[in-house]
């Protein structure tokens, strides 16, 4: 990092200049944190599939991706009282203001003030904090952790115990927490139930881990990559199904295996067609389908009304229903007490200069989580 006048610093960041283009490690300027913002030295950050999907899109560029991260507070803006220099934090792609109707309702984690930011700017003034030669470089999910330093709203970070290993715990910023919460808070899986999980990436395997910890009797994992079969068993999957290995539609196979359908189905792929398949894989009367994936195309869901009329339920899940600032510290404690797995999702550890390798491995389906370690 190089210093700059007026609180501006210059640091290295992986900049995406266009959809699907190789990321370039550039020197960027990062402004002083504004009111109610903090500047974070990123320690570790991992690649999530939503980063990959957005990178492959034709959305806002140039951009700095990354949202699943851990770091240390470098400086704080005016009005910030809950953080101070040196605090260890996790970044949050969806924040919690604790004051809006949703935050105080006890029914929702969709903050009306600090919810998903899709325009690549900060919540407060709709401006960027990154630039190169005066040209704005856009943010991603209000975090942009593929940078040595970043600025976030103080509501988009949570303070954690300094005893937690930052190079591991960064996975709770998104994927692992999202899957566990979908199983526990959204579906509230009951002991002895039957569960089917479509998509065995980090989120799907976190759903499986959550189902196992809740005492599900059968956890069926569905994925078109048969290489995931053995790995899935470590997270609780009891039966593995590859749709390509069956002549029948996979929902029919599942219905036969479960005497009429699973109690719970989870769509963790980001394919709205699979949402319908998941609904068809649930039992009538009480079957619950939870969709977690973010679709790359065809966002509309189509399903015969009879699936719902017969008692099946479809619901969505953002970040597993967790109120991020309120709930994440308890998940960190569970990890430290060895009550939940995180390390096992990390298949690769990479240097910042090798970030493009992470994108390529995820693109080819050869990893779960690649953790990218920033320079000291």
Label the CATH architecture of the largest domain. Alpha-Beta Complex
What number of domains?
Answer: 2
- Share of residues in helices: 10-25%
Q: Unreliable stretches, pLDDT < 50, 5 or more residues?
A: none
Strand content: 15-25%
Nearest-integer average pLDDT: 95
Shape: globular
What does the largest sheet look like? 7 strands, mixed
Structural class: alpha/beta
CATH topology value of the largest domain: Quinone Oxidoreductase, Chain A, domain 1
How far do the termini sit from each other? 10 Å
| Quaternary structure annotation | single chain
| Helix/strand order, N-terminal first | EEEHEEHEEEEHHEHEHEHEHEHEHEHE
Can you summarize this structure?
The protein is of the alpha/beta class and 376 residues long.
Explain what the structure shows.
The protein is α/β, with parallel strands linked by helices and 376 residues long. The protein has 2 domains: 5-173 and 342-373, Quinone Oxidoreductase, Chain A, domain 1; 176-319, NAD(P)-binding Rossmann-like Domain (Rossmann fold, 3-Layer(aba) Sandwich), CATH 3.40.50. 24% of the residues lie in helices and 23% in strands. The strands form 3 sheets. Strands 3, 4, 5, 8, 9, 16 and 17 form a 7-stranded mixed beta sheet that branches. The chain has a 6-stranded parallel beta sheet with strand order 12-11-10-13-14-15, sandwiched between helices. Helix 8 (272-281) links the parallel strand 13 and strand 14. Helix 7 (250-257) packs parallel to helix 8. The chain is globular. The termini are close together. The mean pLDDT is 95. Residues 203-334 form the Alcohol dehydrogenase-like C-terminal domain. InterPro entries: ADH-like_C (IPR013149), ADH-like_N (IPR013154), ADH_Zn_CS (IPR002328), GroES-like_sf (IPR011032), NAD(P)-bd_dom_sf (IPR036291). Keywords: Metal-binding, NAD, Oxidoreductase, Zinc.
């Amino acid at each position: 990092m190089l210093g700059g006048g007026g609180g501006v610093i210059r640091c290295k960041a992986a900049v995406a200049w266009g959809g699907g283009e190789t990321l370039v490690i550039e020197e960027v300027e990062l402004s002083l944190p504004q009111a109610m913002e903090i500047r974070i030295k990123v320690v570790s950050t991992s690649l999530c599939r939503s980063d990959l999907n957005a990178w492959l899109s034709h959305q806002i560029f140039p951009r700095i991706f990354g949202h699943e991260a851990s770091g240390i507070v470098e400086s704080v803006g005016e009005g910030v009282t809950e953080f101070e220099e040196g605090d260890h934090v996790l970044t949050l792609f969806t924040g919690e203001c604790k004051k809006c109707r949703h935050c105080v309702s006890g029914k929702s984690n969709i903050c009306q003030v600090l919810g998903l930011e899709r325009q690549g700017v900060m919540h407060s003034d709709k401006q960027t904090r990154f630039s190169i030669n005066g040209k704005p470089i856009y943010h991603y999910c209000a975090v942009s952790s593929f940078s040595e330093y970043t600025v976030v709203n103080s509501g988009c970070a949570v303070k954690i115990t300094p005893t937690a290993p930052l190079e591991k715990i960064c996975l709770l910023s998104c994927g692992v927490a999202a899957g566990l919460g979908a199983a526990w808070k959204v579906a509230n899986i009951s002991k002895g139930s039957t569960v089917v999980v479509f998509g065995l990436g980090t989120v799907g395997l976190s759903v499986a881990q959550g189902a196992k910890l809740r005492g599900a009797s059968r956890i069926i994992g569905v994925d078109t990559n048969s290489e995931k079969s053995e790995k899935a068993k470590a997270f609780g999957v009891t039966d593995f199904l590859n749709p390509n290995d069956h002549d029948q539609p996979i929902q029919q196979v599942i219905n036969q295996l479960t005497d009429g359908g699973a109690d719970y189905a989870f769509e963790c792929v980001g394919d709205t067609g699979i949402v319908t398949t998941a609904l068809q894989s649930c039992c009538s009367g009480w079957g619950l389908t939870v969709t977690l994936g973010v679709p790359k195309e065809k966002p509309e869901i189509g399903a015969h009304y009879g699936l719902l009329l017969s008692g099946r339920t479809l619901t969505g899940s953002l970040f597993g229903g967790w109120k991020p600032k309120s709930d994440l510290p308890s998940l960190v404690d569970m990890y430290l007490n060895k009550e939940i797995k995180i390390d096992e999702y990390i298949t690769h550890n990479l240097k910042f200069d090798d970030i493009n390798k992470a994108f390529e491995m995820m693109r080819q389906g050869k990893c779960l989580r690649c953790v990218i370690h920033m320079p000291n």
